[in-house]
Amino acid sequence: MIDLCEIELGMPLVNELSSSSAKVIDGKATAKEITESSVVIDVGINPVEGMSCSRGYRLVGDVCYEEANKIASAITPVPGGVGPMTIAMLLSNTLTAAKRAYNLE
């Protein structure tokens, strides 16, 4: 299950995953849509008021983590789930582009 509602460039990925055995959820995912074999990759990020936090809000994903974590075989946390991988790939692609631009490959 992958939630891509927050990704503007997500449609090619949605189409690719939809043609495979992946279930793509566009919007809020509920526990009814999650099975024991689900791997949930939550890419949504939403601020929610939280007075116990120093900023006055906390960040949550599009999937109810507490519910999904009890059912799914694996789930990415928000924050800290896909963000570090996104940054790593951005840096890797930037380095590859620089090498190509200066014929260093």
TrEMBL record:
Residues covered by the Tetrahydrofolate dehydrogenase/cyclohydrolase NAD(P)-binding domain: 30-101
One GO MF term attached to the UniProt entry: methylenetetrahydrofolate dehydrogenase (NADP+) activity
Enzyme class, spelled out: hydrolase
EC number: 3.5.4.9
InterPro entries: NAD(P)-bd_dom_sf, THF_DH/CycHdrlase, THF_DH/CycHdrlase_CS, THF_DH/CycHdrlase_NAD-bd_dom
Pfam family, one: THF_DHG_CYH_C
Keyword Transmembrane helix: no
Signal peptide: none
Stored Gene3D superfamilies: NAD(P)-binding Rossmann-like Domain
Biological process according to GO: tetrahydrofolate interconversion
One annotated Gene Ontology cellular component of this protein: cytosol
Name the UniProt record assigns to this protein: methenyltetrahydrofolate cyclohydrolase
Organism whose genome encodes this protein: Salvia splendens
